[in-house]
Amino acid sequence: MSIRHAFSAIRHLSSAAKEITVREALNSALDEEMSADPKVFLMGEEVGEYQGAYKISKGLLEKFGPERVLDTPITEAGFAGIGVGAAYYGLRPVVEFMTFNFSMQAIDHIINSAAKSNYMSAGQISVPIVFRGPNGAAAGVGAQHSQCYASWYGSCPGLKVLSPYSSEDARGLLKAAIRDPDPVVFLENELLYGESFPVSAEVLDSSFCLPIGKAKIEREGKDVTITAYSKMVGYALKAAETLAKEGISAEVINLRSIRPLDRSTINTSVRKTNRLVTVEEGFPQHGVGAEICTSVIEESFGYLDAPVERIAGADVPMPYAANLERMAVPQVEDIVRAAKRTCYRSVPLAASA
After folding, report:
1. Residue 132: what pLDDT?
2. CATH of domain 216-343
3. N or C: the chain end with fewer CB closer than 10 Å?
């Protein structure tokens, strides 16, 4: 390649790449899907006049009006039920929970009314609805506002459960969720809303959509597989950088989809690296990591060169105190230590004393 062509390629790449926040990605996805399909509407607490508690719905009330951007009372069971009923009749509601902790008020509608209707009606009723909002721990919001619902909803047949990490994930997966004929639980992360990620021109195209049920290999490696979703993907990538300095090549998988789970990508990776570390923010018992470990043991046990490792939140309600909160949530160093253990690179405690 000539120097002129090389500079031309660099210029093209730099002009094609752009950084947007996760908040902007979600907002643009909602805007475009509402513009493309008049059956799509948004409802929830403060989504209209206030433009969203986290400003995800900024500008939508002004553009689409109060019939398609509906401010609701503080009654999750009420507006989730109305949303499910609207979906029965062919509309495509997007229901925002100010936090997924409040979805516990609406869990009967999400599971008994939305998830099961297609099966119980022998396919006569489809329920094209999206339940979305921030999931998991924020900062200093205590035990009742810090739970991760990935494994809760991931265990329920009839639901699709998505958990984006980057701006590309947020935009492509939300578009896919809105277009899907089945109920989708869309688990965002409050602490990621303001994070910026580079996106390509393809991602910014209005036709862009990501497939549901397909994980993304964020970083290729050969020594250990690390699976993660949502905010923990960033922690896994930082851990991989630290491990690389010590000669350990980590492959990081961004799950994107909790249900359906991309077992094929996970098992293919483990058959290459022969080691597995799962990372999640939720409780360890019956968690997403437990399901991944079981899948690998069932399908790829003969390829494992070390016991699988699970990194999860502490098995306690989230403490309020900042120092205890940090101890209850996985940190980068926890992932590094687990990866080292699987590679038999841990320093014995006696030697480090």
Report:
1. 98
2. 3.40.50.920
3. C
Considering the chain, tell me which residue range(s) the CATH 3.40.50.920 domain(s) occupy. 216-343
Q: What residue type is assigned to position 70 of the chain? A: L
Partners of 140 in beta bridges: none
CA distance 325 to 305: 34
Which residues are within 8 A (CB) of 142 and not within 5 positions of it... i.e. 6 or more apart?
Answer: 318, 320
Q: Is residue 10 pLDDT above 60, yes or no? A: no
Q: Does the pLDDT of residue 346 top 80, yes or no?
A: no
SS3 track for 177-205: HHHCCCCEEEEECHHHCCCEEEECHHHHC
CATH architecture observed for domain 19-204: 3-Layer(aba) Sandwich (3.40)
In angstroms, the CA 181 to CA 192 distance is 27
Q: 198 pairs with which residues across the strands?
A: 19
Catalytic residues: 76, 145
Dump pLDDT digits (tens) for 144-203: 999 999 999 999 999 999 999 999 999 999 999 999 999 999 999 999 999 999 999 999
* pTM, to two decimals: 0.92
Contact criterion met (CB below 8 Å) for 289 and 279: yes
Q: Is the dihedral of CA 127, 130, 136, 142 positive or negative?
A: negative
285-314 average pLDDT score:
97
- C-alpha dihedral, 144 to 71 to 112 to 118, nearest 10°: -140
Q: Which residues of 261-295 are buried (b: 16+ CB within 10 A; e: fewer)?
A: bbbebbbebbeebbbbbbbbbbbbeebbbbbbbeb
